[in-house]
Design a protein that fits this description.
Layout lengths: L1 E4 L17 H5 L6 E3 L28 E3 L11 H9 L4 E7 L7 E7 L6 E2 L3
Antiparallel strand pairs: 1-4, 2-3, 4-5, 5-6
């Protein structure tokens, strides 16, 4: 299984406005409350994904997360506060890329509320 943090919505097709962030800059932002801690071995440098790991039915895997980084263009006096307020109650949205011998790979989408409960499918 490989986990990837999803954004709150797909910004890849948004228009680029003069003076605003580029598509590449927007793609580097994790648009959600948390990211995987990039200082942990096997975590993508931006904290977007963790290296694949084995998970059997009933097993658990603990992962370290930290607050996501606000975009550089949230640079006014209250930029950090606005960023945190935007995601204060939003869930952590994830993709689970799964493989198993003898099966075609599959992908699950789920959201983990900040209270720690989870649900498959979801937002």
């Amino acid at each position: 299984m490989e986990l990837t943090i999803r954004d709150d919505f797909d910004r890849s097709r948004l228009p680029t406005l003069a003076g605003g962030p580029t598509a590449e800059q927007r793609a580097e932002v994790i648009w959600g409350p948390f990211r995987f801690n990039p200082r942990v071995e096997g975590v993508h440098q931006l904290g977007r994904a963790v290296a694949a790991f084995a998970l059997l039915p009933g097993d658990r895997q603990r992962l370290v997360v930290e607050p996501s980084m606000r975009p550089s263009w949230y640079d006014d006096a209250d930029g950090e506060r606005r960023w945190r307020d935007d995601y204060r109650t939003e869930p952590i949205r994830l993709w689970a890329h799964c493989t198993a011998p003898g099966h075609k790979p599959w992908k699950l989408s789920f959201a983990v509320p900040q209270d720690g409960n989870w649900a498959l499918g979801g937002t």
